[in-house]
Design a protein that fits this description.
4 strands, 135 residues, 4-stranded antiparallel β-sheet, alpha+beta, single chain, Alpha-Beta Plaits, elongated
Length: 135
């Protein structure tokens, strides 16, 4: 082999190694867990129904929550089905994501919320409520 062919072959091997390293590094970076810390507010409520509350009554509460969310500005998302509850004796949970503190306050002070609670509160035995946001 001549000197030129050796350099070309060596250059191809080096280029291949660099390409493999770049692909590995790119895959490693892409596989890293990325998360955000949004400024929205999450309102999470767990509920334990009173004994004898029917599935139809529970569904009315869920429907009322969806209707209320559709009419109050600043609500970004709602969740109405819990996959796992702690403490385990709780019956249901829902979560509401608010755009900001003003939207969460407007929800809490809304006549729509008051009306929904008048229908919902007599059905619950207990509830736990938490609001979470980022600094």
């Amino acid at each position: 082999m001549t000197g030129t062919k050796r350099i070309t072959r060596a250059a191809r091997i080096l280029a291949g190694l660099l390409l493999a390293a770049a692909l590995f590094a790119g895959g490693y970076v892409a596989g890293q867990n990325r998360f955000g810390q949004p400024k929205t507010i999450i309102h999470l409520v767990e509920v334990k129904w009173n004994p004898g509350v029917s599935q139809a009554q529970q569904q009315q509460v869920i429907s009322g929550l969806k209707q209320m969310a559709a009419h109050l500005p600043g609500i970004k998302n709602i969740w109405v089905k819990a996959d796992r509850l702690e403490p385990r004796d709780m019956s249901w949970a829902y979560a509401i994501e608010f755009r900001d503190r003003d939207a969460a306050d407007a929800y809490a002070e809304s006549p729509l919320h008051d009306e929904w609670e008048r229908q919902y509160v007599p059905l619950r035995f207990a509830s736990l409520s938490v609001q979470v946001t980022n600094p």
